[in-house]
Structures are given as C-alpha cells and as structure tokens.
C-alpha cells in the first residue's frame, strides 16, 4: 500500500500531526497504530463500574479565573472546557500541611510543622528559578540546587521532608531531584505560559475524547462518532522502517509493507529507546545519542475500591500524604469523593523505581502493601480490605515503555533539539519532542503540529 505520508502511532501527537497535514492539503495519509484504539497514553478504562483514567488525568497549565491570558490559553484546555465541556475539577493542594500522615500509627503530623517544611521547600524552589537565568552550561540537578540553598548534603532525609520533596518534584516529573534538570523545570514553562492551575478530568466520556475530537476533524466517522476512515489502521505494530533518498518502506508485525514519501514516527521515547522498531539503515549516532540521553519516566496511578469510605471527606481533604521513612513508598493519595460522591475509590500515585518494582509483582501483593499503609494512616478507623485494585503497567508495555519523558541533568537544548530532528525522510514527533512542554498532553498536541509543519516544508522544497 502507498501513501504520501505514513504516521506511526495514533496518540495525541500522531493524531495532531495528521490534522495539521490535512489542513495543509496533505490528505494522502496512512496512520498505523499498534493497539486497537487511538489515544495512546490518554486512556480510560472501566474500574469498579465506572471509567477512570489510567494515563493522563489533568489538564496542566490553566490560568486562575479572571486572570488575563490573551493568547496564552492551553490549547487542550480550550478543547476540554470550551469545545467538549468535559467535567473537570480544579485540584487544590493548599491543605497538604493538614493532611500529612505519620508512618508510626499516630495519625496526622502537626500542621504548622509540615507547613514550615513546605515553606522552606518553596523558598529553595524560588531560588532555583534564578539558576535558570544563568547560561545553560551552569545547569545543575534539582538535588544539587537543594544542597546549594538548603545545605542538605544528602537531600531531605526525614519522612516529612522526603514526602514534601517528593510531592514538589517526583509527583510532577516522575523522577527524583538528583536526576531532574533545574534549568528545564524551574520555573516550569507550562505554568509560566498557561497558568498555574491543574484541572482533573473526571468525565465518563474520558480524557481520550479530546483525541477523538481532533481525529474527527479530518478522519471519517460514522453517525455515532466512531472513526471508520480506512486511512486509520489499528492493530498494525510497526517492526521495521527502511528509508532511502527516494522513499520509505514500513513493515508491520503481520508482514504487510507500506510505502510512502515520508514517515512521521510518533511512538514514545521509551519505544524508541527499545529495539521494537528497527531502522534500516540504522539511525545516525547523533540521533541515537540524543534519544538515549533523555529520560522516559514511570508514573503509576493505582486505584483501590473499598466497600465503605474510612477517610475524611469535605473541603480540603482531597489530597493526603503518607510520610514514610522509605522515600516514594505509597506517598500521594487522592480520594475521588468530590468527583464521584459515594464511589469509595482512592488513587495512590507512585513513580520511578517503586513503579518498576510494583509492575513486576502481583496486584494482590500491591494491595497488601497499600492496605498496610492505609491501616498505619488510619489506626483508629475500621479499614476494610479493598475489593478491587487496578495497577496500570506502562513500563512493561512494549508500546509505551514508561509514562512520559523527563528532562535529566546533562542534556542541553541543542541535544534536546536533535531528538525531534528528521533523519532524511523519517520525521519524528511525540511529547518528548515538544519545544517547551515535554511530558504533557499539550506538549504532544503542539509537537504534532510543529513536526507536521517541518514535514510540510520538506515536501514543498521537494516539489
Ligand atoms: P503516545 O500517546 O504514546 O502515542 C504513541 C502511539 O504509538 C501509541 O498509541 C502507541 O500504541 C503507538 N505505538 C507504539 N509503538 C508502535 C509501533 N511499533 N507501531 C505502531 N504504533 C505504535 N500529561 C498531562 O498533560 N497531564 C497528566 O495528568 C498526565 N498524566 C499522565 C499519567 C500517566 C500514567 C501517563 C502514562 C501519562 C501522563 N501524561 C500526562 C502524559 C501524556 O499522556 C503524554 O505526554 C501524551 O499523551 C503523549 O502522547 P504521544 O502522542 O506523544 O504518545
């Protein structure tokens, strides 16, 4: 089969690239997607009788109400809020200080004590923003920044300090401060550009309806909105990409060959770092060097359903922390009572090594660990066993190999740019190529548009 452009992957960036190409008159497209659905890392799944988000959940970077933002509105927020009217809730973390639990079974920490820890950490972050004004060669890790301004040679070591540190860093970047680059994250371009609020999408249509909405603008749909366009081919896992000066041939696992003038590879950084797709000839060293230097982080959202609620609800209770002496051990909890009253579901977030550890053990084992933590947090309550648990496994999944990219220390903007650069007729997109917003849904969306523009220019030059 032949097309002018083959897009590999139908996540947010691939679908957004297809729309930009179509808008420019390039409609001779073929989208090859390995799984049986579009949306990639934006994915709803049924859990305990309702739909929950196993991947992206928040629109990050939304202005405070009434704050003038002119053109600087997060494009995903415009679709979620204005076009689709998805149900969302602004996440408020202001009460973390009064919701931090001890690991020794004595309940909550003193609010003022935790507040002081948060204030101190905020001060260090603010000072870190100054480092970003220095030349790029002065970049340091977040942990080095903490040593510098906080005089803590090993970083935070006490349970409360560690969980606050985790909440301020790992909860956003899914990697610890010793890995993350200060200059690329302090301040965070997403919040500077679009605003500091984050909105939790809690809509039974799913966050993925944003991807369907964009796809529906250029792919044929049936009366019910399902995509029936033959240019979208599902269950087509690409195995090999052969490129020359004249054309590109793509081979899928089922043995089919597809030929095109250009290919747009939108698979995750984790997939590119694995050997799932063979490039022939192999990608040049400048390309693989840049791909291997960047990080694919792992962020895991574990959902637990209970026969009854035993945690506090009401204003200021949604997010709560478990301050363990083991950093990153079931640290950040959220109840979904605001979004779905009476659902009795808790969401606990873990990342990095803990995510990889948990992906390799049984869900029963994970449930037992989580239950032990909950019983330590609520020693005076009757805490029944969870009836259901859902543990996504993004890292083990060969079509993702992680959840989102994180900018590590040691990668400068020149090296970062190489990740998104085309190699001959092979173009690249994906959240990991977004100029300022890697790791986010809006990053994937904007990257798709940007990479498509580069391809369109390439095609124009060859006319
Ligand atoms: P993907 O969505 O990975 O799309 C790539 C597509 O390529 C996939 O559909 C995949 O199946 C396909 N593919 C892979 N290999 C092949 C192959 N060999 N052949 C054909 N197809 C292939 N972002 C936010 O903004 N807010 C959040 O709250 C948030 N939370 C997150 C939580 C989790 C757990 C995860 C996993 C991600 C989260 N993100 C969040 C990040 C966000 O989901 C991603 O940045 C974005 O969806 C990535 O889109 P993409 O198109 O770049 O990649």
TrEMBL record:
GO terms for cellular component: apoplast. SUPFAM superfamilies: FAD-linked reductases, C-terminal domain, FAD/NAD(P)-binding domain. InterPro entries: Amino_oxidase, FAD/NAD-bd_sf, Flavin_amine_oxidase, Flavin_monoamine_oxidase. One of its GO terms (molecular function) is polyamine oxidase activity. Its cofactor is FAD. Residues 12-455 form the Amine oxidase domain. Keywords: FAD, Flavoprotein, Oxidoreductase. The keyword Flavoprotein applies. One of its GO terms (biological process) is polyamine catabolic process. Gene3D superfamilies: 3.90.660.10, FAD/NAD(P)-binding domain. Pathway: Amine and polyamine degradation; spermine degradation. FAD binds at residues 13, 33-34, 238. Belongs to the flavin monoamine oxidase family. This is Amine oxidase domain-containing protein. It comes from Urochloa decumbens.
């Amino acid at each position: 089969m032949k097309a002018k452009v083959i897009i590999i992957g139908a996540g947010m960036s691939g679908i957004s690239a297809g729309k930009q190409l179509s808008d420019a008159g390039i409609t001779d497209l073929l989208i090859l997607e390995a799984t049986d659905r579009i949306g990639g890392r934006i994915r709803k799944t049924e859990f305990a009788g309702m739909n929950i988000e196993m991947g992206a959940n928040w629109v990050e970077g939304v202005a405070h109400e009434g704050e003038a933002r002119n053109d600087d509105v997060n494009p995903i927020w415009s679709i979620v809020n204005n076009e689709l009217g998805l149900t969302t809730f602004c996440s408020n973390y202001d009460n973390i200080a009064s919701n931090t639990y001890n690991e020794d079974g004595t309940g909550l920490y003193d609010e003022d004590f935790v507040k002081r820890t948060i204030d101190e950490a905020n001060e260090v972050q603010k000072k870190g923003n100054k480092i970003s004004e220095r030349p790029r060669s002065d970049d340091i890790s977040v942990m080095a920044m903490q040593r510098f301004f906080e005089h803590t040679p090993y970083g935070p070591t006490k349970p409360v300090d560690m969980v606050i540190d985790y909440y301020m860093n790992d909860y956003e970047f899914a990697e610890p401060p010793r890995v993350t680059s200060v200059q690329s994250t302090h301040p965070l371009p997403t919040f500077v550009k679009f605003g500091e609020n984050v909105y939790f999408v809690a809509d039974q249509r799913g966050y993925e309806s944003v991807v369907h909405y964009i796809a529906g603008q250029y792919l044929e749909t049936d009366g019910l909105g399902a995509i029936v366009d033959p240019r979208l081919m599902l269950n087509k896992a690409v195995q090999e990409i052969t490129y020359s000066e004249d054309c590109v041939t793509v081979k899928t696992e089922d043995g089919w060959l597809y030929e095109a003038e250009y290919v747009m590879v939108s698979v995750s950084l984790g997939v590119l770092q694995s050997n799932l797709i063979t490039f022939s000839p192999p990608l040049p060293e400048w390309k693989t060097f840049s791909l291997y230097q960047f990080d694919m982080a792992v962020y895991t959202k574990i959902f637990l359903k209970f026969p009854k609620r035993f945690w506090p609800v009401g204003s200021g209770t949604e997010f709560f922390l478990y301050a363990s002496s083991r950093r990153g051990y079931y640290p950040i909890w959220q109840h979904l009572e605001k979004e779905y009253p009476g659902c009795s579901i808790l969401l606990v977030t873990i990342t990095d090594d803990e995510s990889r550890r948990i992906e390799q053990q049984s869900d029963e084992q994970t449930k037992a660990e989580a239950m032990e933590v909950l019983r330590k947090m609520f020693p005076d309550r009757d805490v029944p066993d969870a009836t259901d648990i859902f543990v996504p496994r993004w890292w083990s999944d060969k079509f993702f190999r992680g959840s989102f990219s994180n900018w590590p220390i040691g990668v400068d903007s020149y090296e970062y740019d190489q990740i998104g650069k085309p190699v001959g007729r092979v173009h690249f997109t994906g959240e990991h190529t977004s100029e300022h917003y890697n790791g986010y849904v809006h990053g994937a969306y904007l990257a798709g548009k940007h990479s498509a523009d580069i391809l369109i220019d390439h095609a124009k030059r060859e006319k």
